[in-house]
Amino acid sequence: MRIILDAFGGDLAPLEPLKGARAAVKEYGVEILAVGDVEKMTAVCRENNIDTKGIAFKQADGVFDMHRDAMDIVKKAKDTSLYVAFKALADGEGDAMVSAGSTGAVIMGATFIIKRLKGCKRPALGMLMPGKNPDGFLLMDCGANADVRPEMLSRFATIGKVYMEKVTGRQNPRIALLNNGTEDSKGDDVHIRAYKLLARDKNLNFIGNIEGRDILNDEADVVVADGFSGNIALKTIEGAAAFMNGEMKEMFKSGLGGMISAMLMKKQLKAFKKRMDYTEYGGAPVLGVQKGVIKAHGSSDANAFKNAIRQAVKYAENDVGETIEKALAESESGEENA
Amino acid sequence: MRIILDAFGGDLAPLEPLKGARAAVKEYGVEILAVGDVEKMTAVCRENNIDTKGIAFKQADGVFDMHRDAMDIVKKAKDTSLYVAFKALADGEGDAMVSAGSTGAVIMGATFIIKRLKGCKRPALGMLMPGKNPDGFLLMDCGANADVRPEMLSRFATIGKVYMEKVTGRQNPRIALLNNGTEDSKGDDVHIRAYKLLARDKNLNFIGNIEGRDILNDEADVVVADGFSGNIALKTIEGAAAFMNGEMKEMFKSGLGGMISAMLMKKQLKAFKKRMDYTEYGGAPVLGVQKGVIKAHGSSDANAFKNAIRQAVKYAENDVGETIEKALAESESGEENA
Lengths: 338, 338
Prior knowledge:
The structure is a homodimer.
Chain A: E1 2-6, H1 15-28, E2 31-36, H2 38-47, E3 55-59, H3 72-75, H4 81-90, E4 96-99, H5 103-115, E5 124-129, E6 137-140, H6 150-168, E7 174-178, H7 189-200, E8 205-210, E9 222-224, H8 227-253, H9 255-264, H10 266-276, E10 283-287, E11 292-296, H11 302-317, H12 320-330
Parallel strand pairs in A: 1-2, 1-4, 2-3, 4-11, 6-9, 7-8, 7-9
Antiparallel strand pairs in A: 5-6, 5-10, 10-11
């Protein structure tokens, strides 16, 4: 198993991606193909005592700028580490890839360089988020498609179901539609129609609409969302968690009782903070494309890269792409090519 | 100043509304007109030693069921406490009203019984939410309009600006558009066009798009949203806060250090929990209608009712409705009648 790593994507590149790569080699026994300026990467490894056993390097001169038009990745950015990583994946130099680069460019590259699965016109970004269930739920789409049609939401459900079964082993996952109320009459026209499509698909364990306040409560395994509100839910959780972490920190600083408690509870507090840090969680798979492409959070540290690599391994090991294609062909809901 | 209270709206009615009414009379020196089954209300007051000084009672036999079609409030539910409260407000028996009843029915009643302001076809639900700034920011719309046009979003901004200036005293409030990215090219077609309208309106201090992760960070005073994603952001914050409160509680139960700390920090923990409980915060004003209508959270306790009454007082005292109408007439952005 060989995972391709865009070593120059993300805020902390290339040090953290390379540290994450090393940890992944050690823990999962995978090989890593690290893409970027090879001279810089080898220097960083040397300076930080990162063992390069199991890591191969592939040259790319440039870095894909976060503010650049995402579509540029397809044809105009061939010197960037992100493009070279995509090309290597397309050419079979690895089994799946990880990048913490521009979300838009990762989605565009996956769609047009790796190419879509049959039956899926609009790939989506999934995100495995921990809540009451520490193994998390899949939120999908969380950003690829701001404008959706009902048939797309129904396809997201089928794709999400396969991903959860294959990657987390959860059989017949509970599927819910993110909406502004639980009744089937809730939402805008797109969501009302999507509800009907989901309800009539016998291959899906559809449990109905879910509200923002319940998505962390382990009520559903797959939360289907349009890319606009899914993105807002994702980032709102991230922001709320960060805010509360900050408030809690202040609380432990206030008064003698707080300071003593901070010492007494050092270990628990660290674990709590980690658990509530939604930037630490692995990656978001681009789903609906022919190979595993995992988007890691822009501020990913070594641990987050390691987790993202683990997701890439699971994706490739379990033939997620093929199984999704098959499930879409058998799907009862939505048009073909939605 | 007299505030009309739907004493049979919400999960904890009529006890908590009446306790809240009593507290408001005492703290703000207002009069309350409590609407509902008068016999029941007086019995509850007697049994719970609630001083009824300053509280008048008005009979309504029924209660508006939460699951009933919201539009029924306009013509088909004349025996309910919610309708009688609306009617009393329309007839000038009070200056503003508070209800913790069905959100949909409160919006419909405000729109069609109290009637819209000139220049505002689509009233919206605002919500003052505390974050890094304990006085909060206004999220609007958070549920009245699932389908919006760009002109509506621009009107929400003008309305929200007036509300913040009049009710919180914050001058020239910073206005941002809730979107799935900060660049002006982000979002679906509606949000891209709304951005342009907001940017060209010289009466607005428009600071651009805001992402879910930043709304609690005191970056904007008014967060303009379509009712669908605004509702999802609101409920997601509520759910994330409840989840983290629960996790924190568990943390303090684990191990001796946690338990000792829980004792040492009893006061801080209580304050923290209160601050993070988004169900405790006063009310959501229905904005764009002729009189003050405040929707309190369904699970409001006495304190939440008291806060909602305070919002109603401020609304009425400061001629919010008139000022909004004037501001809409002067607005440079959006069509008339959006």
